[in-house]
Every structure is written in C-alpha cells, then in structure tokens.
Design goal:
5-stranded parallel β-sheet, 5-stranded mixed β-sheet, 13 strands, about 30% helix, binds S-adenosyl-L-homocysteine
C-alpha cells in the first residue's frame, strides 16, 4: 500500500527533527508543504520532487498530496512543529476519506509549546492549556470562552497564532480576558523564531504582555499564579516544596 507520511519537522532545521521524521523524508519520493517549511528542508533533499503551496491553500495542498499517494508515489506532507497540533494530520485523514487505498502515517514532532518552553525555562511543568488566537477556522467567541476558562482554572497557557496583519490587537484582547481572573503581575513570556535564524525571547508581566507587539512566528506563554521569574527564566513550581513541608 502506498504511504502518505504527515511529518512534524519540529520548530526549525534538521537538528530538531526526530529520527522517524528523517527516515520518512528519506523514503518519500514527493515532499509537499507550505513554502516556508519546504524551504527549511529542501537543501537536505535536493533530488526529491517538491510541491510547495502558499499558506492559505491547505485544502488544495492536502488534495494534491492524497492524489499523488493514490497514484502510487510515497509522499511526505511536512508541517512545522507537530503534524497533529494545528497541523495537517486531521485534514489529510478527512481528505483521504474512509475508503482510500493510501496508508496514512503521522510522524510526531516537537511542537512550539515545548520547544518555546525550553527556551524560556520551565513554564509548562504543571497542567497547561494550548489555545490558538486564529479566528480563521474558529469563531472568536469560542476562543474567548476557552481563554476565560483556562484563565479561571489557573492553567499555564500557551498561545499559538498570537497575531497577524489582520489580527494585530488579538493578543491585547486575550490579555484583557485573562486579566479578569489573573493578577497583572502574572509572569509571562514569548519566543519568536524558535530554532530558526533570529530566535528571540522575552519575559514580562501580564500587564506588560498586553502592550507587546508580536508576529505570527511567535508563541506566547502565560504562567499560572505560582510561576516565578528565576535568573531571567520562567519557572512554574511542580509542587515539590509543599511536599517537603
Ligand atoms: N504545527 C505547529 C503549529 C502551527 S500553528 C506546531 O506544532 O508547532 C502556527 C503557530 O505556531 C505560529 O503562529 C506560532 O505561534 C507557532 N510556531 C510554530 N513554529 C514556531 C517557531 N519556530 N517559533 C515560534 N512560534 C512557532
């Protein structure tokens, strides 16, 4: 049966890829994906056939990948981070449908929540929620509801898609909702271009985060009420201190 790999590349270049991801890319005859991610790996596979499509063409991209696999090619659809976290894995299954002859293999990768957390220190040590601020596929009311619930439940929160040209003030709106239940001093941070050229990070309070300008290559972290800044790093206690008492 023809294989269609849906591969999470991790945040940046090849050093962040798992061995399984590398093996899938080696085996594939055709590499598909968003232009930016294809560019991250193209140099390593100069002889492979490549199909790079612009960002908003996810449905078309998945259709082409499924069709290529159905026609007999081994295909790898690449995604940044993990293929199943705001990635293409779900849409590939939906596109192939119930009766496809293609075997779909999802290959996990390091998602931005985890690679970004490592840059900032240890903000996600305890329970955390991951929320995307993109309202392209999710109504903004649903996003607000989830932000409010995660804020009230004192989760550490990781925000994906915090901004775009059309959504410049969404991070500010999200911070406003979190401030309904959280202290303005709540420790926060962001990481930009994780594992790529131009990686940058900052640690700040929730009220300061409200005024930050971030772009679409940034992941934002909001600690829980116990998260502290230690030596410039964000650290959420796991609870060992209470155990020793
Ligand atoms: N599948 C990806 C997420 C895709 S959604 C993953 O698992 O990481 C796109 C969002 O992910 C971006 O807006 C940003 O918030 C985050 N992101 C992905 N890669 C990133 C990187 N290298 N640096 C910072 N943020 C990143």
């Amino acid at each position: 049966m023809q294989k269609l790999y849906v591969v999470g590349l991790g945040p940046g270049g090849r050093e962040y890829m798992t061995g399984e991801a590398r093996a899938a890319l080696e085996e594939a005859e055709l590499l598909c994906g968003y232009t930016v991610y294809i560019d991250l790996i193209r140099a390593d596979y100069p002889d492979k056939e490549v199909l790079a499509t612009p960002m908003t063409q996810e449905i078309e991209r998945c259709r082409m990948a499924v069709e290529a696999a159905e026609s007999g090619k081994t295909v790898a659809m690449v995604c940044s981070g993990d293929a199943g976290v705001y990635g293409m894995a779900g849409l590939i299954y939906e596109t192939a449908g119930e009766n496809s002859p293609v075997e779909i293999v999802v290959v996990p990768g390091i998602t931005a929540a985890l690679s970004g957390a490592a840059v900032l220190g240890a903000p996600l040590i305890h329970d955390f929620a991951v929320i995307s601020l993109s309202d392209l596929l999710t109504p903004w009311e649903t996003i607000e509801k989830r932000l409010r619930a995660a804020g009230e439940a004192d989760f550490c929160i990781c925000l994906y898609n915090p901004s775009s040209k059309k959504r410049a003030d969404y991070l500010k709106r999200a911070c406003g909702i979190l401030l309904e239940s959280r202290d303005p001093q709540n420790a926060c941070g962001w990481v930009k271009n994780i594992g790529r050229e131009g990686q940058e990070s900052r640690v700040m309070t929730l009220s300061e985060l409200m005024e930050e300008k971030v772009d679409m290559f940034t992941t934002v972290f909001i600690g829980n009420s116990s998260t502290r800044v230690m030596g410039g790093k964000l650290v959420t206690p796991r609870g060992y201190e209470n155990k020793r008492k």
